[in-house]
Amino acid sequence: MIPVEKSKLYTARIDSVSSDGNGVARLDGYTVFVPYTAPGDTALIEITDTKQRFGLGRLIEVISPSADRIEARCGAYEKCGGCRLMHMDYAAQLREKREAVENAMRRIGGFKDFELSSMTGMENPFRYRNKMIFQIGGAGEPVCGFYAHSSRSVVPVDDCLLGDKINGEIIQAVTEYIKEAGVSAYDGRSGLIRGIFTRASAHTGEIMVVIPVNGRALPESGVLVKKLRAVSDKIVSVILNVNKNPGAPVLGNKNITLFGKSAITDYILGIKFEISPQSFFQINPIQTEKLYEKTIALAAPDGKTVMDIYCGIGTISLCAAKTAEKVIGVEIVERAVKDARRNAEINGVKNAFFYAGEAEKLVPRMIRGGERADVVILDPPRKGSDAATLSAMAEAAPERVVYVSCNPATLARDAKFLAEMGYFINEAHGFDMFPHTEHVETVLLMTKN
Ligand code: SAH
């Protein structure tokens, strides 16, 4: 029996935060998820959906606020789908992220007394993103902003507190141009301009502005370039991106450089990267360096053979290659493997080798073919690794396994699998790569003894 009814109001006490950032209440033992509530709130909620095992609710009014509750600093919060925790102070966000990892490791992994040794937050948890995607939409006067939660309607914003302040000026310049040149917004079927995509380099200050369009040209693009160059001389690259695909990805495959460079340069732990509009690159440069520093410290690659599975563009591989004897990177996306090889080349790294393919096929083949690994680093996507990859990897009997994870649930599952293969947890550290969102990153060291 479900003890609550849809569309009715209830008073609920919120006692925790779910892995997707919603407050969790229990009404007569029935779990209800309520976005934008904080643990410790007593709130009036409306039940919006009831499923067999849990329900969904909507915050109507906070009756008695949690000690963690603060005024969110963003006018688009709760409308824009990006942030989930901005109504909680930063220390409370970090506490909840720590708990999310510890709970997953205890409940899913079965590691009874598991604790993180540290949880590294940001000194200033704002303006950390080096990449922003603003959508342009709206019938009539085009508006620039973000898609509302699970929808294609655009919530207008004139700035985002997670990105560089200069984005506000870039939005302004592009909007001015749109009005002057009479350019239409793309509405999913027709219209021209789809959005504004910006990338910034933390170490060189260079900024790239990419304009995705449903066409091959922009009218009076010289005016746009002029306006953008007037914003700042840090804007060293303006690119038109041809994207006629009605689907969600904001970027198409074809780039036309309207001004300056076709790629900007950034560094991670002293390693140089060239970033084009499509390149995969870590989003939070400050936290990435802290995370990768810890990853390398735990991997202790000096003089060893390292296998970096799910290596992307080879960021961790190239950091490890500085002192390792040899690094082998495995990655499914061919373009990323090409980038990894090129990154090795521009940094003069000769001891890193990258292979394209599915880890679950490639790793077993490599290990059976006699490839060795003293140290294995894994940095899988949210769905985690799998039995084929992990058991093949364990056959190589690496001394150290360093698992970098963006999803505590799959980390816990995979760590349990490794524990069954004779590995023990040595230590684990949490990193907040995305303040104000529900995401948390963990790096875990496992060894044979
Ligand atoms: N450390 C990397 C990022 C890892 S993100 C870097 O800094 O660049 C996870 C990576 O796993 C992505 O690049 C994704 O393309 C890759 N991936 C996803 N599924 C995979 C699979 N089955 N086999 C190999 N790589 C995979």
Walk me through the structure.
The chain is an alpha/beta fold and 449 residues long. The chain folds into three domains: 9-69, Nucleic acid-binding proteins (OB fold (Dihydrolipoamide Acetyltransferase, E2P), Beta Barrel), CATH 2.40.50; 102-122 and 284-448, 3-Layer(aba) Sandwich (Rossmann fold); 131-268, OB fold (Dihydrolipoamide Acetyltransferase, E2P) (Beta Barrel), CATH 2.40.50. 25% of the residues lie in helices and 30% in strands. It has helices spanning 90-107, 166-181, 221-231, 285-299, 315-321, 334-346, 359-368, 387-395, 408-420; strands at residues 9-17, 23-27, 30-34, 42-50, 54-64, 118-120, 131-137, 143-147, 154-156, 195-200, 207-213, 235-242, 254-260, 264-268, 271-275, 305-309, 326-331, 352-356, 375-378, 400-405, 424-431, 441-447. It has an eight-stranded mixed beta sheet with strand order 6-21-22-20-19-16-17-18, with helices on both faces. A hairpin with a 2-residue loop joins strand 14 and strand 15. The longest helix is centred in the first third of the chain and has 18 residues, at 90-107. The chain starts with 8 loop residues before the first strand and ends with a strand. The model has no long low-confidence stretch (mean pLDDT 95).
